[in-house]
Each structure stands twice: as C-alpha cells, then as structure tokens.
Amino acid sequence: MASERSVSKKLINKVGDCERECCEGLVAVNPGLSLVEGYNVIVRTDAQDYVRQGKVVLISGGGSGHEPGHAGYVGKGGLTSCACGSVFTSPPPGCILAAVNAACQQQKGCQVLMIVTNYTGDRLNFGIACERARLKGHQTEMVVVGEDCALDSVDHSAGRRGLAGTMLIHKIAGALAEQGKNLEYIVTALNSIKERMGTIGLSLSPCSVPGSGPSFTLQSDEMELGLGVHGEAGVRRMKVQTARDAVKTMMDHMTNTQTSTHIDVKSGDRVALLINNLGGTSVLELNIVAKEAISYLENRGVSVDRVFCGVFMTSLEMAGISITVLHVDDDIIDYLDFPTDVPAWRAPYLAAGMRIRKTPGLVSVESEDESLSDAGAARLDPASAALVFKAVQSACQKLVAMEKELNDLDTQSGDGDCGSTLTLGAKTVLAKLGSASQPGLPVDCPHTLALSLAQITGNVMGGSSGALYSLFFTGAAQELKVANRDSLSAALGTGLQAIMRYGGAKPGYRTMVDPLNAAYRSLVSSGTSGKSIAEALKTAAEEARCAALDTAKMDAQAGRASYVNKSLLTKPDPGAVALAEWFKAATDVL
C-alpha cells in the first residue's frame, strides 16, 4: 500500500468498491440501463425486446478508469452490454460472459459481436469469453481495435494500442446493428473502417489509480507525446508548447510516413475528428485544441466533415488530450449521425439541413461605436469643450499616477489590482482622447462623451470595476443631453442610482458609492445655496474626499471586502479613494 503522503486524493468511499459504485451511479442517473447482480456489467433495460428482433448483440468493455468508455456507450444505437474490470485491468471471462448472458436474455443462437481494444489482457479474456459463447450456441465474432499512431514501430505480438477511436467504432457498430445489419456485414464493415483511423495522445500530467500515487512523473514544464491510456510511456517527452504547436506536433507525428503506424492524410480527403479529454483538461483548452486541429487539416486541403469534442474515453484524472482522425464517406457519416440514446455520445450541433460541416465565418453586427448617437444632444462651445478635454485628461492622469497606491490599498481587501485595473482604463481613455487640437473623443457633447467612457471602461477594464463605471457613465449620459448646472448633479444622481441598483451597494457599505453619494448630495444642496458652479464643484470634491477617507471606519457590506475579517480592514476602500481623487482632479480644471 502506498504511503499516505503519496496517495492521491479522490472522492471515493473504499478503494475496493469504486468500480462497483461507479456502475451503480451510472445506472442511477440513466435508468434505461441496468446493473447485473454479482457482476460489474451494464446492460440495456430493453435488451430482451432488442434481441427478439434478431439484431446483433454488441458487447464491449475493459478496465475501469476510462469512463465514460465503455459503459457509457450502452443503449439504443450503441452497445447492448458492457463488462467493467478493475481500474486499468481487463474484466475476467466470467464477467464478459455475464455481459453476453445479460444481453441475450436466455435466447439461444444470438449473433454476438465483441468489440475489444487491443491490449493483451483484453484480447485474451474476451477471446476466452468468445469461445465459451460459441459453445453456448451463439454465433460470436470479435473485432479488435488498435489505432494508436504514436509508435515508430509495431511489435507483431502486441500491435497498436486501442485508444479513443474505439468509441467511434462503438457508435458505428451501434448504428449498423440498430438498422438490422447481420453479424457478417457488421464485422466486415468495422474491420474495414478501423483501418482508416488513427489516434495520438498528449499528456500534461499523470493519473493515479485509487489508493495509489501518480502513475508517472512529469515536470511542470513538460508534456509527453503518444502515451497510452494507462499511463504507459509515450514516444517523446518535450517542453510545454502552445496549443497550436502541440496540435501540430501531434498531427505531424500521426501523419509522418516514416513511421509504421502513421495514417495517410492528403488534400481532398474527407475525415471526422474526435477531440477527446483524457480526464483533467478544461473545456476551454479542449475547444482551443479542436480549433487548432480543424485548422491544421483544413490548411492541408482536408475536408473535416464532422468533429466530436468532449469526454469520450479518459485515463482517470489525467490532464491531456487525444486526437482521432477517421477517413469518412457518405455511409460512415450516416452511421455517425444515426440517432442514439447512449449517455456518453456527444454529437456536434449542425445547422438545419447541413450535411457537410464547414467552419462558419464571422457574423457581422453593428459595433457599439457605430451605435453611439448625439442626435438631439446639447453641444458645447469650443472653450467649454476645451475645459472638458482637460478635465478628462487630468482625471485619467491622476489615476495613472495613483496605480501603486491603489494597489497597496487593495491588498487588504481584494487581490491587489484595483490600481492596475483603473490605470488600464485611464490609459485607454487617454489614448483615445488624443490631443487638445484634435480630440479623439466627443468632448464637445457631454452625452456622447459619457457613452464613450461607458464603452471604454466596460470593454477594457473588465471585472466589477469596469462594469460599475460603465453603469455610472451610461446612467449619467441620460441626463447630459441637456448641458446646464442642474444636468451635472442629475447625471451624478442617475449614475449613482444605476450603480446601486445593479451593484447592490448603498451609502455606508464601504464602496465607491460613498464618495459618489457625498458629491451628488453636495451638488444638489449647492443649487439652492447660491454658490457658483466653481464653488459647488470644489465643495463636492471635498465632500467626496472626506467620504472616501471615512470608509476606513465602515464595515464592508458589498464587494470582496465583505468577505474579509473586519479587523483587517484598517485603511480606506481603494475604489472610494480612486473615485474621490479623479473627481477632484476633474473638478479642479472645471
């Protein structure tokens, strides 16, 4: 037994029970499947009706740990039953015969096809079961699938390993059997089709058998090409590459005519692709790999008629992928498209009436910049527009200068990037603002300027800060179609309400809402006090700064800071400080 330190963590109950409990979970989720008493065998619940129709019984299986293969392919349009061995271990003959008996439902003389991945243990155990099934009166054949393209040479006694391409054979066999094709026809078809297929794998990390440690070791900057699904060594260990380079390395090796296991791929060929997750790869990475594999083949003039992308045959939690290429014709496309209810099969979404898959082009839509309109909005005279230019410039320069200070403040309540996020937005605004003689933003139209700032902050800054500022400027724009003293305070108020409505913060919650609310209330009150606009703005800026500093005394009730221990929040909120400072910088100019 491996030491406690070396044993990998897994969500199981007991090591010895994990295969059985995996099967129990599969049938509990998919009640169209049943589990055989005393054996780790999955069978279609409608097997009796299926067999009575004289259709070919399809049996497969192998070691557990490759889920959803093979048990996930049992069902209508797929396998009739499946025998599950221990993790990475072939099921014994008795288990395989139980799969035959469960599928045939005591009917004599069934047509039985066993689909077997090319590993010595699988060939031997399924071979024994095949012979015993014949003794029981069943017409039984076996198709062995070995499509690994990694090896430079093939040992004639072992041959090529069976990999995820076997799941394509399951799918095609299921379609043929469901259509009523006889055993001889299906065997002939599958033996032909399997020779038109190749697979290669790539690993970024090892897997670990329950109760044990990692099956092999890869350094953090390494990946392994051509490994087997049980963690067997590959053909090359190399430094981590980009997705594009990794796919090219895999496909170049797979199609290298100098190796005895290669698959021929040339311009004009039609293929189907299977992009398989070996267990621990994110969907994000898998989609990138799929894109690169399609591009690789299409750039070589190959028609990629179908792409299947997802979890088809895993190696426990191994981070990695395999790519399968299958040469297709119209018949094979029909078999792959044939309806199936098996839980593991994931067909691509095709447009209505689409027969041959094509990589779609981009859809053109109206850009946000094109949708901005200043129709009916007030325009400023050149002198006022020049002041607005300087105010925006000054506010952005202040944020850039405060980047480190704001990041330092953010380390106590966030992830230390508040200053960097705001600086990114400010630098983008400055770049678009251009020069005073030729402004790149509509400084002569406050309404359109606010909408422009909403787009920049929302698109460039990202995260909560970008969204909050985008909401503020979008709300403020509604009030700036009219340019007067009251419209400025109204703009602050409407922007403030937008932030509170969608962000959930209120005054006193220790956020940017506090200084913004203080500035708004100050401007509203100054409108009735007889203060000049300059005096009103100066007072509002002072009120905002005081409110920002006061956040140091508040309990955080919104944002990331609300999850931080109160005793650690001893400094002002960085978002509040930032707003007060850029507001003061802008109003000093105005």
Automatic annotation (TrEMBL):
Entry-linked PROSITE patterns: DHAK, DHAL
Lineage top rank: taxon: Eukaryota
GO biological process, one term: glycerol catabolic process
Domain (DhaL) ranges: 386-588
Keyword match GTP-binding: no
GO MF assignments: ATP binding; FAD-AMP lyase (cyclizing) activity; glycerone kinase activity; triokinase activity
Domain DhaK: 14-345
Assigned keywords, A-Z: ATP-binding, Cobalt, Kinase, Nucleotide-binding, Transferase
Record keyword Lyase present: no
GO cellular component: cytosol
Similarity comment: Belongs to the dihydroxyacetone kinase (DAK) family.
Subunit: Homodimer. Interacts with IFIH1 (via the CARD domains), the interaction is inhibited by viral infection.
Function of the protein: Catalyzes both the phosphorylation of dihydroxyacetone and of glyceraldehyde, and the splitting of ribonucleoside diphosphate-X compounds among which FAD is the best substrate. Represses IFIH1-mediated cellular antiviral response.
Protein known as: Triokinase/FMN cyclase
Species whose genome carries this gene: Candidula unifasciata
